[in-house]
Structure formats: structure tokens, C-alpha cells
Specification:
Distance between the termini: 143 Å
CATH class of the largest domain: Alpha Beta
Structural class: mainly alpha
Strand content: 5-15%
Helix content: 40-55%
Largest sheet: 2 strands, antiparallel
Order of helices and strands: HHHHEHHEEHEEHHEEHEH
CATH architecture of the largest domain: 2-Layer Sandwich
Number of strands: 8
Number of domains: 3
Shape: elongated
CATH topology of the largest domain: Alpha-Beta Plaits
Strand order of the largest sheet: 1-4
Radius of gyration: 32 Å
């Protein structure tokens, strides 16, 4: 009986050893060697795992950054330039610094500007509401007011204003991760450059309807009149699909478009002084007057030159 037990134990031990040896060789053959720099990069990441970089989380971003030939297509909006400098130092890459971004709500449709036409009685979700119908106001493009963007923000940078019914961005907390832009079914939230010393211009409207329909739905919507585009001297404003858009890479922050906008759809943010619309309009009128005078003078000079050249041509023809 004792011999049987001994042989049983020995056989089991031998089989266990053989199986362990097989597992070891299999593990060695198929093991995945991970670059140790991935751990180093992950350690300097903010750890938000917000997905603003386009990856599932900070670990996925670190893996992609290590495998990439450069960092041109990899950027952490939460950590910003400071974190990216640390990542570049670990990987031996160079980075191009990017301007700080911030979320901007492009809707003027407050309760006062955009009165309700019906009452919504359903799930408190912008996504659900947008799937059911165009909204409870006359504007089919504006904020639905259920706060999906607020729920999506992991940094407490968004809140709903009970007076206006619109989301408000806390610039000091916004990391420009883009979660709110993805959560908004109406796409009224945009990431824009903060601008020098926090000054920036934007059109707070995305309504693509024609002017009369916009005015009927919202008192402060963009009517696509094009006055701002004609006023801008820097080519920063375009009007497409009946709505104006300001290219922040071209905008010089002169605020002339804001002063000339007939509905107040253009907003200037972060400026140290309030806008003096009358002073700006006077400046524009004087510039336009000088331009007309210069054009008239040039036309008169061209006409005089043509008249002076006429007798010479006649003499040449007679000769």
C-alpha cells in the first residue's frame, strides 16, 4: 500500500514538472515584450483617462506615443504643453507647442431670446430629446438644456445656468478634453483657442436657417447678413449655410464685427474693457470714407491721365 502511494506521488510530481516545463517554453515563445518607456510615459500623464487625446485612456496614449515616429499626431489636451514636454523628454522627441484651448458654447438661445413653443415631458437627456424631435423652441439647432455636456465633464467645468437655461463653461477648470463636444447632439460646443490673455471672439450661433426664420425663433441668432464678413479687414470671417464663423487663427481681436452685428450674435470674451460700439462704428465709417475718397482720387487721376494721353495719340495718328 505504501509503495502504491509513493509511485502515485512520484508520477504526479513528474507530470507536474513536465507540464510546468511545457508551460514555461510556451510562455517564453509567445510572450509579448513591452517597451519599459510605456510605464514611464504613463507616470507623467494626468491620469484622467478622459479620451480627449483620441485613445481609450492614458495607458493607450502612452503605448501609441512610444510606437509613433514622432508626437505630431499625439497630444494630451488635459496635460497640455507641460505634460507633452515630459513625454517628449522620455522619448527623445521634439514637440510643437499648441495654443491652450477652451470649450465655447455657441448658442445665444437663452430663455429670454428663445422662448419655448411647447413643453417637453420625457427623459432628461439631450440625446433622447434630440432623437424625439427638434426641441421645445422654434430653433432646431440650439441647446436642448438637459445638461448632457455637464454630465460628461469629469472636471466640473460645466454647469447649467438656471436663468438662461444654457451651459456655462468655467474656464479655470476646462481642460479642453472634448468630452462635452462629443456629448452634445446639437454640436453647439466647440473647442477654440483661449486667445492672448484669454481674449477671443466667436459667433454664438449655429442656426443654418435663413434670416427671417432665425429672427422668428431667436432674438439673438445669426441671420447670415454678412455685415461682419464685409467689415472684417483680416479675412477671418466667412458666412456659409446662412451662419457666420470666425477663424481664430486669423482674428486680430479688433471687435469691429461685434460692434456691427445687428443681432448681437458675435461675442467678445476676456477683454479688459467693455466694447464701445459707437466709437468702433465711428472708426469704421471714417475708414470707409477715406477708402471712398482714395478710390475717387485714383479714378480721377486715371481719367486725367487718359485725357492727357488722348491728344498725343491723335498727333501720332495724324503723323
Amino acid at each position: 500500500m505504501s509503495t502504491t502511494i509513493i509511485w502515485t506521488i512520484a508520477i504526479i510530481a513528474i507530470l507536474g514538472g513536465l507540464l510546468a516545463l511545457v508551460l514555461y517554453f510556451v510562455a517564453e515563445k509567445f510572450k509579448v515584450v513591452e517597451d519599459p518607456r510605456i510605464d514611464e510615459v504613463e507616470k507623467v500623464m494626468p491620469g484622467a483617462n478622459c479620451g480627449g487625446c483620441g485613445f481609450a485612456g492614458c495607458r493607450a496614449f502612452a503605448d501609441a506615443a512610444v510606437k509613433a515616429p514622432n508626437l505630431d499626431n499625439n497630444y494630451c489636451p488635459v496635460g497640455g504643453n507641460d505634460v507633452m514636454k515630459k513625454v517628449a523628454a522620455i522619448l527623445g522627441y521634439e514637440i510643437k507647442e499648441k495654443a491652450p484651448m477652451v470649450a465655447v458654447v455657441r448658442c445665444n438661445g437663452s430663455c429670454e431670446n428663445r422662448p419655448k413653443t411647447n413643453e417637453y415631458d420625457g427623459a432628461s437627456s439631450c440625446k433622447v430629446k434630440a432623437a424625439l424631435y427638434s426641441g421645445d423652441t422654434g430653433c432646431a439647432f440650439g441647446c436642448l438644456g438637459c445638461g448632457d455636456c455637464v454630465a460628461a465633464c469629469q472636471f466640473g467645468a460645466l454647469s447649467m445656468d438656471p436663468v438662461t437655461g444654457l451651459p456655462v463653461v468655467d474656464e479655470s477648470k476646462c481642460t479642453a478634453c472634448g468630452a462635452c463636444t462629443k456629448a452634445c447632439p446639437k454640436q453647439i460646443i466647440e473647442l477654440r483657442a483661449k486667445g492672448p490673455r484669454g481674449m477671443r471672439m466667436y459667433v454664438s450661433c449655429v442656426n443654418k436657417d435663413k434670416g427671417p426664420a432665425v429672427k422668428k425663433a431667436c432674438a439673438a441668432g445669426c441671420i447670415g447678413c454678412g455685415i461682419c464678413q464685409k467689415t472684417c479687414q483680416h479675412g477671418a470671417i466667412t458666412v456659409e449655410n446662412n451662419v457666420a464663423y470666425i477663424d481664430y487663427t486669423k482674428c486680430k481681436l479688433c471687435r469691429e464685427c461685434e460692434a456691427m452685428c445687428p443681432t448681437g450674435a458675435i461675442h467678445g470674451v476676456g477683454f479688459p474693457k467693455p466694447l464701445d460700439k459707437e466709437a468702433v462704428k465711428t472708426r469704421i465709417q471714417e475708414r470707409q470714407k477715406k477708402a471712398r475718397e482714395a478710390a475717387a482720387a485714383a479714378a480721377a487721376a486715371a481719367k486725367a491721365a487718359a485725357e492727357a494721353a488722348e491728344p498725343v495719340k491723335k498727333e501720332e495718328n495724324n503723323g
